[in-house]
Design a protein that fits this description.
The complex is a heterodimer.
Chain A (H helix, E strand, L loop, with lengths): L9 E5 L9 H5 L5 E4 L4 E4 L9 H5 L5 E5 L12 H13 L4 E2 L14 E3 L20 E3 L22 E3 L3 E3 L9 H14 L3 E2 L16 E5 L8 H6 L2 E5 L11 E2 L6 H7 L7 E2 L10 H14 L6 E6 L4 H9 L5 E5 L8 E2 H6 L4 H14 L7 E5 L5 H10 L3 E4 L1 H6 L22 H4 L4 H25 L15 E3 L4 H7 L2 E2 L3
Parallel strand pairs in A: 9-19, 10-11, 11-12, 12-15, 15-16, 16-18, 18-19, 20-21
Antiparallel strand pairs in A: 1-4, 2-3, 5-17, 6-20, 7-8, 13-14
Helix pairs in contact in A: 4-14, 8-10, 11-14
Chain B lengths: L9 E10 L5 E2 L1 H9 L9 E6 L9 E7 L2 H14 E8 L13 E9 L1 H7 L3 H15 L3 E5 L4 E6 L3 H7 L6 E2 L1 E9 L12 E3 L2 E7 L4 H10 L9 H15 L4 H8 L4 H4 L4 H13 L9 E7 L2 E6 L8 E5 L2 E5 L2 H5 L6 E4 L7 E4 L6
The chains are: A alpha/beta, B alpha+beta.
Chain lengths: 501, 362
């Protein structure tokens, strides 16, 4: 047998005094880490298989388990880190492209954490959201250029189609296939209860979920999986996915083992086949082609739905967004380089794209400089981790935020970053019936509702502190932000002052 | 630092009076009225706007300009001469008093756009004037046009408002409507431009408050070509009002519904037509919503509008006597000049009180 060069990163530590050998860990672990040795009458672990998803830890009735970082190490080297070396071993073994899931975990700057929020003192009273109205209702969509009045002086409603959100947060695109039926149902039901929207991702829409259409964004990606006229007309909005923050420049990846019968039917592709979307849309090689697709989709949906164009945050994002804002799109969604994914080549996930904070600041500024900010709404994601990130994003200029990783965490995800393996022990990123049933949509949707309600409360508290009682007065209000520990250049791009200024 | 280089939150006093019959009266009373509220200002800014004060030049734009020196004056006058026909120019008359010091050069020009230049610009006359004002204020160092309307004028300075009134000899002007302002800035403004009223064409605004939506409003208005050089709330409020009424054709009532929009829960209780309209306005003009405390008095050719923020975080009271209507931060300011004023009324948050000249009054 060939030598395995790859050492496990984690150790499963079992307190044998506490272990009652109930074998819950064994039953729960789809990676087959735990097994019972009937001769020795002990539970054993094979940590080479462990992805550190914490399912066993969470379900162990006696709290006998913990997963710890292994202190087994290669000879220390700041350049050839263990991760770099291990990658070489893997590729020398398999000749394969390294695959990963979820967002970029590398220690690159998180600008949200270097931005601080203002509050009122003396000259302007803070407003108490427990005692005064505090408004988070948000409309997304293009605004009319001119006000038209009829003969008797009444304003004529000439608004293009709009989306109305109770709070400026939406669930970002995650396809049925990459995540489970129960995960989709949880998102759809939560969005409906909350008065926000979720997004089908590029995998079509399961027929059971058509009833949640008014709270659904249907996505058209380069693979066109599951796209048909009914699909387009069922959602509240149509999103053209040009790119994704986790993997700018390439299309979606869904490993064949996740393409089960039901997924195959929804996607309209053969069962078990890998669903690798083309890198470009083959009918969009330039901006004028995008305009044609935008209007094709508007024609197909009778001009009743706003069209969103989603792009990854890349170097020249401002110019691209400016082009999109003149293409007939109603909303631009920008996905930062920390955005999640169900599967992406590791090197792309970790090295391509730019932070959403900088992309948002530069796009908002460019659209204003060109006088076309009212043509579109801006939605940002990748990654928004808390209500404070939402507040900062809106103050930088976003109309609303997309969250996806945060939503999965609410459903139980522990960010083991192994979605591409299809063995998600939490029943989220898997299609195995024995695993998907672990996610109860009644519980899942309630947890999502709780999360968004909690964030909305926090947003209101922060708004009130600033003396702002309606979310639109926060949008683009960059004086409410200050940077800490940022360079002149970074502050210039973010369009904010340094703390103390 | 000069005004415009930093944010300068202010508390304030506001007052206004108007004859709805268009009867003219001297500026004496408005000085008395604002003087009562002495303690609401701190000597760092005061000012007045008078309407109907230049009947002999009522068809000409009256530019009131501050100059820091004669070089700025020369540059500015060259600019004005290039684009306008100047029918009269003079120093704005002032009285030397010890309370007002460091006065800039203050000049007044009655002008009308040169027809050839106006035609070449392909702009409406008003837009032409506004762009000239912005150009001078942002590009000619040391020149600042602080009043640009027809048959109206703004008079302001660093000082207590009653001293500012005496400095400008306001008692010598006869108008049908006056507004006044006493400022309580938290920082020393090095410069007179930051005092109120702020005005653009014949629109003038005096304001008490510190708006929390400032930068959202400013960035939106700058996209529409307005340049916020002073970083004051009053400036951006004036631009919003100009944008909504002149450029977008909204009525003052509709504009008030944008600036101090009704809460969604209030809108939900409105009859359908009104609900649809308010929802439309809040959606389309979301960047013009103003939050945070304010009470403003807007002066315009045909009257006055008083408006409070949606939570009524600043005081404001209205009263009347015959054809006279009064607005002030405190009732005492009204009683000082009209003991027996009646119908004293405290408008609710977000409720615009619009007083117009009677029909047929010129």
């Amino acid at each position: 047998m060939a030598i395995n060069f790859i050492e496990p990163l984690y150790e499963v530590v079992r307190n044998q005094d506490r272990c009652i050998k109930c074998r819950v860990c064994e039953n729960q672990c789809s990676n087959e880490v735990h097994r019972y040795d009937s001769d020795l009458k002990v539970m054993l672990s094979d940590e080479t298989k462990c992805v550190n998803c914490h399912r066993c830890v969470a379900l162990c009735p006696t709290k006998a388990l913990k997963i710890v970082k292994s202190d087994n190490c290669f000879k220390e080297n700041a350049n050839w880190t263990q991760a770099n070396m291990t990658s070489i071993y893997k590729q020398a073994d398999t000749a394969g492209v390294l695959l990963s899931s979820m967002g970029n975990p590398e220690p690159l700057p998180v600008y949200w954490d270097k931005i601080l929020i203002n509050a009122s003192q003396v000259t302007n009273p803070p407003i108490d959201p427990l005692r005064e109205p505090m408004e988070t209702r948000t409309f997304l969509g293009a605004k009319p250029k001119d006000i038209v009045k009829d003969k008797s002086g009444n304003i004529v409603n000439n608004l293009p189609p709009q989306l109305e959100l109770s709070t400026p947060i939406m669930f970002s695109a995650m396809s049925y296939g990459s995540i489970s039926y129960n995960a989709h149902e949880s998102l759809a039901r939560a969005a409906t209860e909350l008065g926000i929207l979720y997004n089908t991702g590029e995998g079509g829409l399961h027929e059971d979920f058509y009833k949640y259409g008014p709270n659904t964004i249907v996505q058209v990606a380069s693979g066109r999986f599951g796209v048909n006229k009914d699909f387009l007309n069922t959602g509240a909005a149509i999103e053209i996915k040009m790119g994704q923050g986790a993997k700018p420049g390439i299309g979606g990846h869904l490993p064949g083992q996740k393409v089960t019968a039901d997924v195959s039917k929804t996607r309209m592709i053969p069962e078990g086949s890998d669903a690798i979307s083309p890198a470009p849309h083959h009918d969009i090689y330039s901006i004028e082609d995008l305009r044609q697709l935008v209007y094709s989709l508007k024609e197909a949906s009778d001009y009743k739905k706003p069209v969103i164009v989603k792009i990854a945050a890349v170097h020249n994002v401002a110019v691209i967004a400016s082009g999109i804002a003149r293409s007939g799109a109603d909303i631009i969604a920008i996905d930062g380089f920390r955005g999640g994914t169900g599967a992406a080549p590791t090197r792309i996930r970790d090295n391509v794209g730019i932070p959403i904070e900088l992309a948002l600041a530069t796009v908002d500024k460019r659209l204003r400089d060109e006088g076309i900010r009212d043509n579109v709404s801006l939605v940002v994601g990748g990654s928004i981790r808390s209500s404070a990130d939402v507040v900062k994003a809106i103050a930088l200029g976003a109309d609303a935020c997309y969250i996806a990783t945060g939503a999965l965490l609410a459903l139980g995800c522990h960010l083991c970053r192994s979605c591409h393996l299809g063995r998600c022990n939490w029943g989220i990123a898997t299609q195995r019936p024995d695993l998907t049933k672990r996610l109860n949509p009644d519980v899942g949707s309630q947890r999502l509702v709780n999360l968004i309600e909690a964030w909305t409360h926090e947003i209101k508290e922060m708004m009130g502190g600033m003396g702002i009682n309606s979310i639109e007065a926060l949008r683009g209000n960059r004086l409410m932000l200050r940077g800490v520990g940022l360079t002149e250049k970074e502050l210039e791009i973010l369009g904010i002052k340094h703390a103390g200024e | 630092m000069l005004e415009g280089q930093f944010r300068n939150p202010s508390g304030c006093a506001v007052a206004a009076m108007i004859s709805t019959k268009g009867r003219t009266f001297s500026g004496e009373d408005i000085i008395k009225s604002i003087a009562v509220m002495h303690d609401r200002s701190n000597g760092l800014g005061g000012g007045f706007a008078g309407y109907g004060i230049y009947p002999e030049y009522k068809d000409y734009y009256a530019f009131h300009v501050f100059y820091t020196d004669s070089i700025a004056k020369k540059q500015c006058e060259e600019f004005i001469e290039t684009y306008y026909d100047i029918v009269n120019l003079s120093k704005v008359p002032t009285r030397q008093i010890k309370e007002i010091t460091d006065a800039p050069l203050i000049w007044r020009y009655f002008v009308t756009p040169l027809k050839t230049k106006l035609d070449a610009a392909q702009l409406s006359e008003e837009e032409y004037v506004i762009r000239s004002v912005f150009k001078i204020n942002t590009q000619i160092d040391g020149a600042y046009i602080f009043s640009s309307g027809k048959n109206m004028g703004v008079f302001k300075a660093v000082g207590f408002p009653e001293d500012v009134g005496r400095f400008y000899m306001l008692e010598n002007y006869e108008g049908y409507s006056f507004t006044a302002h006493g400022r309580y800035p938290t920082n020393t403004p090095g410069w007179w431009g930051g005092a109120h009223p702020f005005s653009l064409l014949d629109l003038s605004v005096v304001h008490n408050g510190e708006i929390s939506s400032y930068d959202a409003n400013r960035r939106a208005m700058e996209m529409y070509g307005y340049k916020c050089t002073l970083q004051t709330d009053t400036e951006v409020i004036t631009y919003i009002l100009d944008y909504l009424t002149r450029r977008k054709g909204l009525t003052l009532e509709e504009s008030a519904g944008v600036i101090a929009a009704p809460f969604w829960e209030t809108i939900a209780r409105m009859p359908k037509d009104q609900r649809d309209k308010e929802t439309y306005l809040r959606n389309v003009f979301s960047s013009q919503l103003i939050t945070g405390p304010f009470s403003i008095i807007v002066g315009f050719k045909d009257g006055l509008m008083a408006l409070n923020d949606r939570l009524k975080l600043r005081s404001m009271v209205i009263a009347e006597k015959d054809d006279m209507k009064f607005i002030a931060s405190e009732e005492s300011a009204i009683r000082r000049i009209c003991k027996d004023a009646t119908n004293v009324y405290y408008p609710k948050g977000g409720e615009p009180v619009i007083i117009r000249l009677e029909k047929g009054v010129q």
